[in-house]
């Protein structure tokens, strides 16, 4: 069988919500053995169904972020629970957490403690704003960080409320950042044998994502200036954005103004210079373009604009995205059978490897579904595992019991928070 790139590496995923679990899932997709270490009542995301999609035994939020993982349900606030985790750290390659400030130290799972157990450990600490500093205790929730990042004021109309992205943008880019950091740290360890502490925070992730925009401001000295029309990006010349047509919408990006004028029948564009008037007449260009595009259907405009060499495209809903022939060709979505949720279809992998492809080996686990299996691998005897189960230090869920949902966790307990930003 083809070996995946990270086959043989073990990741202990002690994170919650989206950014941490998403990063760990990416590692699992590449073949790492990802052990999701969660409270005995289950990770917070199990009980917070995005969009109200509850699922059967596992809601879709959790399902989407925790494939290719095994679940160990353990009470890390107990002495026995800490000992269990220490046994796992001895043979782990990566430890990933996004606890609130001070929680890792209180639990005894901070970097100095765990690196003493395993000096080769890559320890990833994720936070909302940084490990210290004036904002360390602020809630690092996605929307709040989008707002603080400045990104919202690069789109829309002057004077109107800024519009956030329609995705969990900060969570997603933080997950990708952590994923990159783990791979880089593992490469360093392969070369030197050294483990290390890796810190990733959401504020820096969304800030550095705006490399071009912020450099235009800091190095070019050009401030963000929204106009009276809903321009899609303050640092790109007009017309640039989405426009209503006779039967829908289309997206239009940086057309040559005389060419656009000939296609849509707007004579005022014919004598304009795109690189001059595209900036100085931004609102007027948007308004005149919008008036003209109302006169024909989306398909008619897409045909005419494309034939003229103008960059344009349709505005999809999710069903149209799923049905897109390029998406189908790429195999962007994956389907697999889950023991409790049935046939599952979700986005797949953002990378392709000819020799070591990413795969779905298992769906998202039930709470503690693999507790007994993982502890056996760690060297615990059946009697020791039974004792831990009986005293509540660890928990397990069998597939035959999957229809019974576990109770919602106490969000005041260590390590449980409504988002990564609370840490």
From TrEMBL:
Keywords, sorted A to Z: Transferase
Region (Disordered): 394-423
InterPro entries documented for this protein: CoA-transferase_III_domain, CoA-Trfase_fam_III, CoA-Trfase_III_dom3_sf, CoA-Trfase_III_dom_1_sf
Signal peptide (residue range): none
Pfam families reported in the protein's UniProt record: CoA_transf_3 (PF02515)
PANTHER family: BLL6097 PROTEIN, SUCCINATE--HYDROXYMETHYLGLUTARATE COA-TRANSFERASE
Record-given protein name: Crotonobetainyl-CoA:carnitine CoA-transferase CaiB-like acyl-CoA transferase
Organism: Kribbella aluminosa
